[in-house]
Amino acid sequence: MLLIRGFEERVAALYRDGEVPGFVHLSIGQEAAAVGACWPLRDDDVITSTHRGHGHCLAKGLDPRGMFAELMARADGTNRGRGGSMHIADPGRGVFGANGIVAAGLPIAVGAAVAAQLRERDAVAVAFFGDGAVAAGAFHEAVNLAAVWRLPVVFFCENNGYAEFSPASSQHAAPLERRAAGYGVDYVAVDGNDVVATARAMRDIVSAARDGRGPSIVEATTYRRHGHYEGDPQRYRSADEVREWETRDPIVVHADQLRAAGIGDDTIGAIERSVACELDGALDAARRSAAPDVATLHDFVVRARPPTTEPPPLPADGPVFRTMDAIRGALEVELDHDERVFVAGIDVGEGGNVFGLTRGLRDRFGDRVRDTPISETAIAGLGVGAAMAGMRPVVEIMYLDFVGVCLDQLLNQAAKLPFMTGGGARMALTVRTQFGAGRSSGSQHSQSLEALLAHIPGLTVVMPSTPADTYGLLRAAIQDPNPVVFVENRLLYGTKGPQPPDDHVVPIGKASVVREGTDVTVVSVSRMVHEAVAAADAVARDGISVEVVDLRTVAPLDTATILESVARTSRLLIAHEAVVPFGIGAEIAATVARDAFWDLDAPIARVGAAATPPPYAPELERAWLPDRDDIADAIRRLARV
Ligand SMILES: Cc1ncc(C[n+]2csc(CCOP(=O)(O)OP(=O)(O)O)c2C)c(N)n1
Ligand SMILES: [Mg+2]
Predict the structure, then answer these.
(1) What is the distance of C-alpha 490 from the center of its chain?
(2) Which of the four pLDDT bands, split at 50, 70 and 90, describes residue 162?
(3) Each residue of 18-68: pLDDT tens digit?
(4) Among 271, 331, 557, 620, which residue's Cβ finds the most Cβ atoms within 10 Å?
(5) Is the Cβ atom of 102 under 6 angstroms away from ligand 1?
(6) Torsion angle of alpha carbons 314, 319, 322, 328, nearest 10°?
(7) DSSP class of residue 198?
(8) Which residue out of 51, 156, 171, 232 has the highest number of ligand 1 atoms within 8 Å of its CB and is therefore the one to mutate?
(9) How far, in Å, from the CA of 160 to the mean position of ligand 2?
(10) Residue 122 CA to chain centroid, in angstroms?
């Protein structure tokens, strides 16, 4: 506790003096909760922390020198200067991250616990969160999933009475104890300013979790003695209240306990001096560390992919299979070959997925193919946490439109954690999802949202168009060390095509020229590739020769293949099912205009859906959705220029 207190007192001074940039949230007054909660934890146990996480990280064993250096944004900080106070993490030591997003750590802790459960190890995960986080959806999804799967997670609430400036009483109509009962989860209240009481309670709770008795919620009552952030004018609390908690300070309380146990002030003083000396040395060493080299700006965004070469073309007269067989086959082979792979999502287990894609996998692989509650944040978050624990999760989000429900876990966690941890976080996560317009599925079950995902640095976005590519790219996605969103088009599930051998793996980030031509290049993706090929056949009758490029991977974009094609044809059309404005066509057009404008004999054209949500009425949807005729018209216009 003295180490945490001394660390944060020094941080307060560093922040005041401008040596620490950004914002800083201190946990001064809450040290007993952090230390008590981590007391029974082993190195292989995991914690997830919050914006107020210095104490949790130190209590789990991180070294103060690295943390000082991190806060001062230095190259040898815990996260190599990519994280800062709110994002300290060291996954190798079981610290899966302080987190700038309130409640985001709870689903990640669930994922770490899933990893422990699947590996049949008796490790546990402790998710720290504040009283304010109890109002967030991620809390409810994580606790419910942990309860349903009886996961070894301890949800550890530090109730310090406030969420920012708002008292807890104004945020919750029911106490946490009643919420725990509502989820069928054990609840324990502790005096969070009494380190001995907290450590004792946690010893029993953690040991129950290790024994497979499922999750618990612990509520530690405590108080933060500084503001919500350093510099907070703290108008929301009275001087009397602050004074009262001074006397209940955890270090004061524990010094009394030590004295009562016969430990003299000289011993306590010696501990204080040794901690101060350690911290001063750590701070001096941190100050000597350099700022990150700006040449390393792009590091840690995407990990090197395993080398994969383009498989040879498949014979036209060989066996055929459907896209849905490709998906099941790829999942089955990966589950079979790699113990780290597991599959989770709504009705992917017993139900075999609403399209029958995972039918039979649960029978063969048991608990490695898991049905989840309808909790997209928990589904994506368990993928993030399990991936950080070294697994290769394949989680399913039923419809691409539903990424809106779990976007934080993709945008702020999966995509950013490898970067924010300076490469410390593993993230071999695959998120399978599907879309597809043309069958009146309506605005919320149709949309092609790849541009939204491709716009997030760190995410890989794959959209295959053929059964063989679906098989080979899904295998590559599962083997990839990066978070990959694998987007299927459900209208292609029944489409047949040549069946590759079992060892077929298609490289991520490589487009393919699916039809050669000389007059116009059409770059397309997913189902629109088939429309583009049909359009190319149609305009061939008018004497126009069209080359069709199937992107296969949206991010990273294979600009080389596109530029080579445009160099041959001098005309470019991009066709996608997504709405035109701000779509991937704009990115491709900008790239070609920048890198090859001298090759172009005509302005770059785009075909895509109209800028409205997908309509329900078939007449409206047909008018909205681009098809082969729209593409053929655009090709003819381009060829005339
Ligand atoms: C999703 C999200 N919403 C809002 C915020 C802004 N914010 C940061 S901390 C905080 C209060 C959190 O209160 P609590 O969970 O009780 O933690 P404490 O600050 O008391 O430790 C808020 C609203 C955020 N970081 N993330
Ligand atoms: Mg709070």
Answers:
(1) 24
(2) very high
(3) 999 999 999 999 999 999 999 999 999 999 999 999 999 999 999 999 999
(4) 331
(5) yes
(6) -90
(7) H
(8) 51
(9) 5
(10) 25
